Amino acid sequence: MTGLGGRIKETPEDFEVEEIPAYLPSGQGGHLYLWVEKRAVGTEPLARQLAEALGVDPGDVGWAGLKDHQAVARQFFSVPASAEPKVAGLQLEGVKVLSAVRHGNKLRPGHLRGNRFRIRVRDASDPDAAEARLRALSEQGVPNFYGEQRFGADARNAELGRRLLLGERLERPPSRFQRKLYLSAFQSELFNRALQARIAQGTFARALEGDVMRKEDSGGLFVCQSPQDDQPRVDRFEISPAGPLFGPKLPPASGAVHQAEEALLAASGVSMEQLRSRGRGEAEGARRAYRIRLGEPSLQREGADLLVNFTLPKGSYATVVLQELLGT
Predict the structure, then answer these.
(1) Which CATH number is correct for 23-109, 2.40.10.340, 3.30.2350.20, 3.30.70.1560, 3.30.43.10?
(2) Given this structure, which CATH class describes domain 142-292?
(3) Among candidates 146, 256, 176, 148, which has minimal Cα distance to 211?
(4) Taking the model in full, what pTM does it have?
(5) Which of 55, 98, 110, 123 has a CA that sits 20 to 30 A from residue 235's CA?
């Protein structure tokens, strides 16, 4: 793919992201939902700052999803309602509390529908090609790769997860959070390899006999037995092939698809028994759609820049969309 050039994230304002919540706070309950706009502040560092400023335990601060540091991001945080009197006087650099409403439960990771993005691409070399690619991505779907963020600053998280599953001792004993991070990265790396193989084979958006298919409306899974019947549903984006996040509870594919997935896991040197015994319930297994649908896609030109807008479901990466769009 020929690159279109362009630069992103030169300033936080070049990358805007807004959380699409799974639900809105009810107005009653023992937790306070803070709708926060943050500039050049990471989600986890801000959670620690909120805990200190409001005088609550860091473990009592909740959020639904991690947002980019080099960005202007709007998202919910939850804190105990006892902190409400201190919110009006809250002053943190790069942070605005836009609203504060009570709710009955603490916000947990995954309590969101998705995210809305507005991204400035500076000095893109071929805006016409970018518009054509955005249309194609909207029609065919975007490869649902895990982004670089998943694998750590030095891209070692997946290898550390593999070593944990092999029973090797790491240089530094990982915390529970780090264990889960490393094991998830290992699963994610194998998923990315499976997806890359489907793209190379030209079957990224094809129903294959034995595929596990995911329903777009409900997330339900079923095994494809008749590709000729299922392909029209794939074309209408009602269903999509779903790749493996290896673990003992992975919904199995069948036939040649199952064999290919088994070969991929075997090539990593890790067995399903090791995932079962050493995953400790932290790498249980699941299916992830090989493609995602862009919501509300649009592109505007502003001088030499492009303004790209779209929404993504939770767990998907805007950086992957930009790579596909710009050929970087």
Answers:
(1) 3.30.2350.20
(2) alpha beta
(3) 256
(4) 0.89
(5) 110
Residue 267, pLDDT > 90, answer yes
* CB atoms inside a 10 Å sphere around CB 265: 18
23-109 and 142-292 have identical folds: no
The dihedrals phi and psi of 299, each to the nearest 5 degrees, come to -145, 130
46 pLDDT higher than 70: yes
Render pLDDT for 185-237 as a digit per residue (tens, 0 to 9): 999 999 999 999 999 999 999 999 999 999 999 999 999 999 999 999 999 99
Distance between CA atoms of residues 135 and 125, nearest Å: 18
Tell me: the pLDDT tens digits for 278-322?
887 889 999 999 999 999 999 999 998 999 999 999 999 998 999
Is-catalytic flag, 68?
yes
Q: Scanning the structure block, which residue is given the tokens 């603490």?
A: 106
Residue 328 has a pLDDT of: 63
Residue type for position 45: P
> In this structure, what token pair is assigned to residue 271?
């067995």
Domain ranges, ordered by start, for the chain: 1-10+123-140+293-328, 23-109, 142-292
Cβ atoms of 36 and 97 closer than 8 Å: yes
- List phi, psi (to 5°) of 69: -75, -50
List own/partner pairs for 39-44 with CB under 8 A and 24 or more apart.
39/12, 39/13, 39/71, 39/72, 39/94, 39/95, 40/12, 40/69, 40/70, 40/71, 40/94, 41/69, 41/92, 41/93, 41/94, 41/95, 42/66, 42/67, 42/68, 42/69, 43/67, 43/73, 43/75
- Catalytic pick among 14, 57, 60, 68: 68
pLDDT tier for residue 3 given thresholds of 50, 70 and 90: low
Q: Please provide the DSSP assignment of 273-284 as one string.
A: HHHHHHSTTSS-
